Amino acid sequence: MDTTELKKGLKIAGQVDRVNGKLLSYSEFVERYLVKNHPVVLTGLMDDWRACKDWVTVNGSPNLSFFSIHFGKSEVQVADCGYREFTDQKREEMSVSEFINHWLAQSAGNHSTVVTEKYDGKSLLYLKDWHFMKEYPEYVAYATPLFFCDDWLNLYLDKYRMHNEPDVQESNGISCSDYRFVYMGPKGTWTPLHADVFRSYSWSANVCGTKLWLFLPPPQCHLVFDRHMKSSVYNIFEEVDESKYPGFKKAVWMECTQGHNEVIFVPSGWYHQVLNLDDTISINHNWFNAYNLSWVWDLLRQDYEDAKDCIEDIRDISDDFEGLCQRNLAANTGMNFYDFFTFTVIMTFANSVHLYHLMEDSKSLSNSHPRINHIILNLQSIRRICLQMESTCLGENHGISFDFKRTVCDPFFLELCAVLDKTYQKLHDPCSPSCCENGSVTLDGVEDSVFVKISGSLVSTPENLVGFLDCVLQKLDRTPCSKINSSCP
Ligand SMILES: O=C(O)CCC(=O)C(=O)O
Q1: HSE on the CB side for 163, CA within 13 Å?
Q2: A Gene Ontology biological process annotation (predicted)?
Q3: Which of 162, 215, 251, 432 gives 20 to 30 Å between its CA and that of 227?
Q4: Which residue has its alpha carbon closest to ligand 1 atom 1?
């Protein structure tokens, strides 16, 4: 597909770096891309993926019949790329078989058979956000590349829910079971301009096909918004109304043409638009960790202000105005302040348990071991955000409290700890035996360990959590102002 005409009028300043992932260490990736929040295309990471064999025909196109035969009954979300609904494309639910029939009918351009009955000759359908991994855990389609394994979002969602009110949960499709997806669509399908959910990072791997990506760095993102910073441009390849979006022409974009077997890292807060230049299948995760957690919190703060402004006129007649704001925040953004606080408490406890194990093992690990440094960096990042949380409604008594001693007896929490242990071992110590080799963690003594004794084990507010964190960090003689802080996000 020739894209010259589409890109006419856009200022494109450069191409995204392309690096052989086999020659890049985890610490290099962190330093060059995670910390700098910079995109990169990584090659050489998909060699052994089952998806790359089963899902692709010998001529490199999507093996659609494989999907119909093996996964045809799955119900999925399909976007109509020709039909805008609010800020996104209109979506409908259908089975994978129906979607594939539509695709085949469309590419045949043929309206005569039964399978084409639903095809209206105009719409270009794009299967998005298919929770394939969750639905088919036994069919191991791929392995998450090492660079993207420190994924607190999916680790947490494998054991807990982000938001617990079922009506909010189901109504918008945002708060979901995980953020691991498959996308597939014919040439010409596309995703409108957006920054990712929660301002998470994402990675996207092309199992087959080619995608064109246009990226706008965060300092320029205001340029795609209207004067009130409320709505953003929907499609950068169309004529953009300059009276509505006065900054748009000044935006300077980065471009990337991502081929098959290439993985792109999408940093936090970068607006991007994506176009499939061929029939394409991709695997895509959203994720966050210590390096971009502040992006998530900043978005929540901003969305909270918007949610509050929207209902300001009913403040005086509302019994629980704050509760309503938090409810609307969860409905619009996928989590609210309480959800985020719960998440940070659990991740603090899990990181502390991991640290406890490493310290138990301290005869073989020095205090500056990369795994210990990693945990300290995590805890310091959480601590900085906690300090900001104190000035919100979370600082008041809201009736939620977390008991460390009880949490460490919860089997879901222990499973989360086991995965965290394994992940950090894989990242920093691939050759040493894991402290949870058999998939479980032993916590003998942890509930009575020194940081719990000093800090007390009940956490109800961000202030309590800071106390807990200080206690853990001081145990290591790593006060929050220590040197490592400067490398934190
Ligand atoms: O592949 C697409 O169409 C969109 C993917 C995307 O926007 C993302 O991974 O953040």
Answers
A1: 24
A2: positive regulation of translational termination
A3: 215
A4: 274
Length of the chain: 489
Ligand 1 binding pocket (C-beta < 6 A) is: 183, 191, 196, 202, 204, 211, 266, 272, 274, 282, 284
Type and span of the H or E element at 204: strand 201-208
319 CA to middle of ligand 1, Å?
Answer: 41
From 40, 270, 282, give the residue whose CB has the most ligand 1 atoms within 8 Å, as the site to mutate.
Answer: 282
Count of beta carbons in the 10 Å neighbourhood of residue 222: 11
Q: What is the rounded CA–CA span in Å between residue 31 and residue 34?
A: 6
Q: How many CA atoms lie within 13 A of 319 on its CB side?
A: 0
pLDDT, tens only, 137-172: 999 999 999 999 999 999 999 999 999 876 555 444
Instruction: Look at residues 415, 334, 436 and name the one whose alpha carbon lies nearest to residue 159.
Output: 415
CA angle 298, 420, 131 (to 5 degrees): 70
Distance (Å, whole) CA 210 – CA 289: 29
SS3 content of the chain, % helix, strand, coil (to 5): 45, 20, 35
d(CA 184, CA 128): 7
Quote the Cα angle for 251-254-257, to 5°: 140
- Residue 122: count other Cβ atoms within 10 Å of its Cβ: 9
Predicted structure pTM score: 0.93
Provide the token pair at 46: 């998909």
Instruction: Match 């290591």 to its residue by tokens.
Output: 476
